[in-house]
Amino acid sequence: MSQIQSEIVAGVGLITLDRPEALNALSLQMVIDLTKVFTDWRDDPNVDVVAIRGSNKRGVFGAFCAGGDIRFFHDAAIAQDPALEDFFTAEYSLNNLLYSYPKPYAAFMDGVIMGGGMGLAQGADLRIVSDRTKMAMPETNIGLFPDVGGGFFLSRTPGHLGEYLALTGQMLIGSDALAADLADGLVASDSMPELWASLTANTQLSATQRFEQLSDLVSLPSPVSTPAWQDPQIDTIFALPSLMDIVNALEQAKGEWPAQTLACLRQRSPLMLHVSLEQIRRGRQLTMADDLRMERNIVHHCFHTEHLDRSGTSSETVEGIRALAVDKDNSPAWNPARIEDITSDMIEPFFTSPWPADQHPLKDLD
């Protein structure tokens, strides 16, 4: 049974992620199916607009996509299943397709949207959130990094918010996403079905005109309050050159926010905090395609960290997923265990391609 549903109605291609028992976490087959649908519709003259939403156990909306299927990552890494490499190649190719998609594209981001869900939505022309939206890139908590183009879209948030979001995995609730420039419009969650239906109603208008009407409606100014986590010190502290500079500044700063932020960082993978900071800094200068090629290199090294004599069950990522999602003891044995113990020799190889340029799995992205 397919885990995505798709149909064309009145010139609009409609996609529903349909794996509600897993909060629509992306399987390899879902990525393959989504790529086929988006590619077919890109070239189909009967499709002028595309929209995507999630589903929950009771129906549609309420959950968008909780990311990639991390249990699959864990099991495939241990089994040395080549499908793991296939997953990231396919997913990042899809992310790039969506960023350069030539037709108006709307993402209805109701409910949970993390990781791979952000990769599906951030390339949309119209990114709609609701009061129920819970958005985050929490990968450093599982020994990973904010991939799916996170180096590109997080680095382009205001100031140095991208570094903060990448390292802490801070959750953005509703209007927080507007403040971070990761959404274009905020609506009441109860209005999502009506707004979705508006894309295919009133066929006296063209599909493109209906999309523009929706865009105008949801993009009206919303009252945006400053979230408690958005401290004025973010821009100065997270602009500092290195992770140790950031940690030292947080240790010396007074108040609740520095203490909470430092405590959060101390729980994350020390190695992947350093890697993620470097990723965001490099991503700020890259195109989306080049960022995804960089991230494809990094993710390979997450599961094949030969320069640290680690792979399979001993990799930082497999250990992080084990602690959070498999054994659920929430006690990952990070290695090295402290932020202070990471050296540049541990970080730099993540950014070295394991493939010659002409054999890179994403060599054809543009």
Summarize the structure.
The chain has 16 helices and 13 strands.
Ends apart, CA distance between termini:
33 Å
Separate helix tally: 16
Q: Can you identify the CATH superfamily?
A: 2-enoyl-CoA Hydratase, Chain A, domain 1
Number of strands: 13
List the strand order in the largest sheet. Answer: 1-2-3-6-8-11
Number of folding domains? 1
The percentage helix is 40-55%
**CATH top-level class:** Alpha Beta
Radius of gyration using CA atoms only:
20 Å
Average residue pLDDT: 96
- The shape, in one word, is globular
Task: Give your account of this protein's structure.
This is Enoyl-CoA hydratase/isomerase family protein. InterPro entries: ClpP/crotonase-like_dom_sf, ECH_dom, HIBYL-CoA-H. With 366 residues, the chain is α/β, with parallel strands linked by helices. The protein has a single domain, classed as 2-enoyl-CoA Hydratase, Chain A, domain 1 (Alpha-Beta Complex). 42% of the residues lie in helices and 13% in strands. It is built from 16 helices and 13 strands. The protein has helices at residues 28-42, 70-79, 83-99, 116-121, 150-153, 161-168, 176-179, 192-198, 207-218, 234-237, 243-252, 256-267, 270-283, 288-303, 316-326, 344-347, and strands at 4-9, 12-17, 49-53, 55-56, 59-60, 105-109, 112-114, 126-130, 134-136, 172-173, 185-187, 304-305, 310-311. The strands form four sheets. Strands 1-2-3-6-8-11 form a six-stranded mixed sheet, sandwiched between helices. A three-stranded mixed sheet has the order 7-9-10. Strands 4-5 form a two-stranded antiparallel sheet. A hairpin with a 2-residue loop joins strand 4 and strand 5. Helix 1 (28-42) runs parallel beside helix 3 (83-99). The protein is globular and about 65 Å long. The protein starts with a strand and ends in a 19-residue tail after the last helix. 48% of the residues are buried. The model has no long low-confidence stretch (mean pLDDT 96).
